[in-house]
Amino acid sequence: METVLSISNLTKHFGKIKAVSNVNLQVKAGQVFGMLGPNGSGKTTTLGMLMGVVNPTSGSFKWFGEEPTHHIRKKIGAVLEHPIFYPYLSGQKNLELNAMIKECDPANIPKVLELVELSDRKDDKYKTYSLGMKQRLAIASALLNEPTVLILDEPTNGLDPMGIAEIRELIKKIAAQGKTIILASHLLDEVQKVCTHFAVLKRGVLVHTGPVDDVGRGSETVEVTADVENLNEVLLKFAGTSTINREDGTFQVSLRDGFRSQDLNKFLFENGVIASHLVTRKKSLEKQFLEILAGA
After folding, report:
1. Which has the least CB within 10 A, 7, 17, 44, 139?
2. Measured in whole angstroms, how far is the alpha carbon of residue 113 from the centre of its chain?
3. CB under 8 Å to 187, separation ≥6 — which residues?
């Protein structure tokens, strides 16, 4: 798989503040790559360096195996901060201006408007748009030059639940077209739902990177309920039981490595216990994220 972005020891200091420290990272073609971290972790500074709006203190990065140049950056679309649109112009007119500035083919405008589902509002003034619509128009603008890579900085910031869901579906739609997407977010749920890979930054230091699918792998926790008085004793006899907690009448059984929920279910059945409720709870990205930050 082609390496779209390669970062080597990328560092940025603002005076005594180490905003980004020796970050090494690779993003492959077709990935939806989430950069996770609390506010002040260096996500926006990193994206700023990648787009040439912030100068690195040291280190380097390459796009498509080449040094960053104006020509290379034409392959990249970005929504870094609140884009500047004219409130009294329509969405269509604003995109026409953007296309002229970017030297893009204006024939792309109907395509991007349809993609972000703003075709029916294209002639309405920008000031009449909701926050979610404004964000979708910003993404449309970033897609005007038909980029290979799309960079989004906190794409759902400030949106209501419906707006968040719309942006999430839009990101999935864009990714399905084969584009590589790099997005910065502090919303764990967002990253888990739309990203294929993620990295965690803490105070400018990269503390974890890997596939989102790996989240929750390892030992399982199983919720068990059964209509027997000595369920706790039976569960303790199971060789795969690591720890047991009781919450609201349900037993939370943490399993040892190598044991799965079906092993526990079989053991209960063989001991005359039929579970009325048996559900595997995988570790959420939130739990893993907090563990990563605590251990960093």
Report:
1. 17
2. 24
3. 156
Three-state SS for 66-125 is ECCCHHHHCCEEEECCCCCCCCCCEHHHHHHHHHHHHCCCHHHHHHHHHHCCCHHHCCCE
- Does the reported pTM lie above 0.90? no
Distances (CA, A) of 279 to 81, 253, 262, 268, 272: 42, 10, 10, 14, 19
- Which 8-state DSSP code applies to residue 187? -
CATH topology of domain 3-214: Rossmann fold (3.40.50)
Listed by start position, the domains of the chain span: 3-214, 221-282
What's the Cα-to-Cα distance from 39 to each of 35, 42, 50, 113, 275, rounded to whole Å? 12, 8, 19, 32, 44
Distances (CA, A) of 262 to 156, 215, 251, 268, 274: 39, 20, 16, 10, 13
CATH for 221-282, options being 1.10.3470, 3.40.50, 3.30.70, 1.20.120: 3.30.70
User: Which amino acid is present at 32?
Assistant: V
Q: Supply the Cα-derived Rg of the chain in whole angstroms.
A: 24
